[in-house]
Structure formats: structure tokens, C-alpha cells
DNA sequence: ACGTAAATAT
DNA sequence: AATATTTACG
């Protein structure tokens, strides 16, 4: 009756309860073929789905191989190779399935042994069908026990899920909480499945009595909490348990956190490593972009939706591009702002992360290295690191849940309720970035003068945008509007789901708050490309985020980032920078949409490879600088470390 | 309780 | 095939 299977999977559910015993999947084990046959027939008559085998070892293999494919095991006690007790023991250990022992002897000892080993019942041989008709109760009992256990051990929030048992316990509905469900043990699986007497295969229904823990997905919100917790604890004290407490997420287990922490640290490590590599190649490598892409394991860098990449072979070094990373100057009012406590920063961060846009960005941005972080402040992960991790996630995250893909049930608006700017302005002052803007200056960037340049242009649907203009390399004298148009289109094309809200609108510079980090690049006069590209993501983005932003923009548009503060020192570092900053004509560029540009670019072979190379450099340097900046801020060593920053800048200048 | 590595799931 | 998560273990 393989047909009944269907029902068996639901039998536990409220609704499926009606037919429950019918189709219950039973594995009968007995070395005595005759007895087995008899048993089988009786079980069948009870409407159970029966699978039989005369070999206990084989039985175990079958169970291991078909986890969740059996609801109950009924086994003879005395068997060669492996007796029923052993089987019982292993089953109990590995799959927590109800096991009924069968024996021709009623020795108290044996019965006791069976019970001790976890047998849920001990039947004496000859078994009467009446006895078998009720064995399903053990399945139910088991299930109930498990349920209770879970509830006590970890507050499983989804009682409903529990009821459903087999259902998946992750309520992704509310981004904030995840639910973990029943746990089970998993084991190795031997791959062979053998003959048995009759059928054995099952369709893969889901929830018999044993099942694995549902996979927890670390969505942005959850991760945000995680990062927040880690931040609060400090990387050194951030241990699973503490993090778990801080996160305060129902159903989340320490293991979950530990696991995530593991990955997190790994990401951190990689990041730093990568950073070092980059540092090494600082002046030479022409295509760090690609290197990073494959070297650090973060594939699809900036191209979460696409796979096309720019060929490294076509990446000549970029001569005219340069990067100026003038994080806030060591002097100036900003510094005062920097005084904000880490706590504040954290708050800001969390707030920020809460922002839909940021979230999106996080998902999209790729992570970049921050080499110096470790060397400068050993053991003191910087927020950049954390961010980096987040970013790394985005790459993969996108795969699972695209923030832009409504089909995933991931809804930006609802998922990220507005948070009151408890810290308001403080928010951005974190790293002295408050009220400062990161200026993006690049010679390759298209000129823009309309603040609304990046607004949605629905017309762009899905058709490929002409991006020949991206070939700008250095020449680019194409007219501004055209550029804008293209950028817009391109960006949009890949960025905004047709039905999504025009995030752009939200970021219209006009509507943006002041204290946010901004990226603005204005006409660049460096080299000979009068290109001008300015973007402002004015959304109270903490440095961390700003970094991400920069990474993307810098990487894609390849250019220079500068903070307003930079002005103070621009002369010292670069003449080119002068008067290149005007955040006025800048257009708002929605956070996180930069990567799309990259994507678009990638899709166009027309992109000037050199640009990419340069962008990478820029990005990396920017990173370094930012990190430094960050560290400085955190450590209050602004002045002291500034020298370093200078170096970085000088380095960048050289390139230019 | 931790952290790391192996096992699995996607 | 590469990652992300879950488990097993010391």
C-alpha cells in the first residue's frame, strides 16, 4: 500500500489526523523470515505501510538512509549480527524513532533491558493483531514528548509549527524572529540500500517521527541583531551564549549563534587576509578586483544577480584614476563629534541597519578587505570588519533572499519599520563622519547635475541598456545628460523591481537628512576627463555603511572618495581635488544600488577594464583609509594615526 | 560552554 | 561546486 504513504505524512497534523494510523510507516525486523512474514501481514492488515528486513544491520542502514521515512520500528530481540537491543539503542541514539521490541521470551530481564534501552513497548511473540493495532500510539507519544522537550529546552515560539510537526519551523514572515524547531539527530548515511522483502521506498514525505532541525536562515534582521550583539560585547567577549542573550530571539539556540559566529569570524579572517594581500599588491596589481573575487571566496562580487565578470586580461592599469580618501580630517569639529561613545555608534548602527535601504545595501554590497585593521589593532575588530562580514553575507544572502525580490516574501517596508533616530545626529558622527560627506570624485564618472538623476525610469524595464558609454575609460566627453540617462537606466534596470518602491525617491537628496553620510562626487578635472558623477546617499549611514557604499561605488565607478573634511587637507594631498567638491549638483544615489551598476557594467563588455582595475584600487585604498579612520575614531587616536592616513592618501595620489 | 571540524542541506 | 547550517567532539 504504497499509496497510503501520502496520508502518513500528514497523519500527525491536525488536519491529517483523521487518517493517521493508516499508512504509518513501519519497519519490521526479524531474522526469522516466517515470523517476519506473519508480522508483516498483520501490520499490513492494520493499514500500516510496512517495510521488512531480516537483517538488523540492514535495518539500521535503511533507517539511516531514509531518515524521516519511517515512523516506527518493530524489531525482534534475538538476531544475529546485531540484536534488537543494539538496534534499539542505535535507533534511539540516531533517530529517535519509537521502537517496539518483539521477543519470544518474557524474561523480566529482557523486558527490562528493552525498556532501559528505550523500547517504547515490548511485545511477546506470538503477537496478536490487536496489539499491533495500537502501536501507532507510540508514534504519537514520541511526537508529543519531543514537542514538550523542545518547549522546555528552548522556547519554540511556533507552537503551531510544532503541532504541524513536520512543518518547517522558520517563520520568516516576520523578519525579526526565526523559529527553530524540533531537533533531531542526524547521522551519517551509508549509501547502499538493500533488498528487503518488499517495498521499502517511500516518497519523501516529511514528517514522520524523526526529522532534522529546520535550517535557520540568517536573514538581514537576524544578522543585524547578531552584529549588534557582537558589537556590544566586543569581539573578544562575544561568545555564543552572550550573543544569544543579547539577541533575544525566541527559538534561536546557542548552537545557531555559535555557528553563525563561526562563520562570522571566518569572514573576518578572510577579510583581513584579503586585505593584506591587497596591501601587498597595493601599488602593482592591476586587477585586484578579480583577485578578490576569486581569492576571497566572495564570488559574484557586486554582481549578485549576474554572473558576468570583467575579464582580467583586459584590465590595463588605470593611469588617470586616483583615489583620495580623506576621511574626516583629524582636526575640526568632526573630531569633537567623534567623541561619541561606541555605544552610541552601536545604536546608530543598529538603527541604520534597520533602515530598509541599508539593509538592501548590505545585501548587495560585497565585502572588501580591510587589511590594516588587524595589524593596527590586533584583536580589535573594527566595525568595518563587522560590516564586511555583513557584506559578505549579502552576496550569498542575495542568493537566498533577494531584498528586491518580493517573491521571497521579503518585504522591505514592513520588514524594516522605521526606527526613531534615538541618536539622531549623533548617528553619523560616529567616525567623525557626521555631517560630512564622502565625496566621490572620479574622472570617469558621468556628469550629473540633476539631483533627481537617479530616479526611477520605469521605461527601463528589462531591456538591456546601452552602456557603451561606460567605455568612458578616460575620454568621456559624452554629454552629461546622456550619462545620467544611462546610469539611471542601468542602475534601474538591474536594481529596482518593477513593482518596488522607488527607493530612489526615498533617497532623493532633497529629502535626505543632513547628518547622513553622503557620497558626492562632482565634476572631476583630474586627468582629462571632465566626467562628473556625484551621488549622495543621504541616509544617515554610519561610516560602516558608508564604507560599503564606497566600496561599491568606488569599485564600480572607480574613483575617489573624499570627505568634506578632506578639503582641509586636500591641498596637501592633492591639487586635483580642489574645487571638485560640490555636493550641490550631486544626485542622490540610493544606497546599495551601486552594485547594480557594477552588475550592469559587467554585463557590458564595453566597460573599460582599466576602469575596473582602478576602481578596485580605489576601493581598497578607500577601505584602508576608512578603516583607519574608523579605528582612529574608536581609539581616539585620530591625530596619531593620521600619518598613516596620509600615507594612504599619498599612495593614492601617486596613482593619480 | 566553546571552538573547530565534519556532515549535510541548499 | 560552493556555501551555509547543523552536528559531533575534544
UniProtKB/TrEMBL annotation:
Domain named HTH myb-type: residues: 210-269
Coarse class of the protein's main subcellular location: nucleus
Biological processes, Gene Ontology terms: cytokinin-activated signaling pathway; phosphorelay signal transduction system
Keywords from the UniProt entry: Activator, Cytokinin signaling pathway, DNA-binding, Nucleus, Phosphoprotein, Transcription, Transcription regulation, Two-component regulatory system
InterPro entries given in the database record: ARR-like (IPR045279), CheY-like_superfamily (IPR011006), Homeodomain-like_sf (IPR009057), Myb_dom (IPR017930), Myb_dom_plants (IPR006447), Response_reg_B-typ_pln (IPR017053), SANT/Myb (IPR001005), Sig_transdc_resp-reg_receiver (IPR001789)
Molecular function as annotated in GO: DNA binding; DNA-binding transcription factor activity
Biased composition (Acidic residues): 191-208
Cellular compartments per GO CC: nucleus
Family, similarity comment: Belongs to the ARR family. Type-B subfamily.
Protein's name in the database: Two-component response regulator
UniProt lineage: Eukaryota, Viridiplantae, Streptophyta, Embryophyta, Tracheophyta
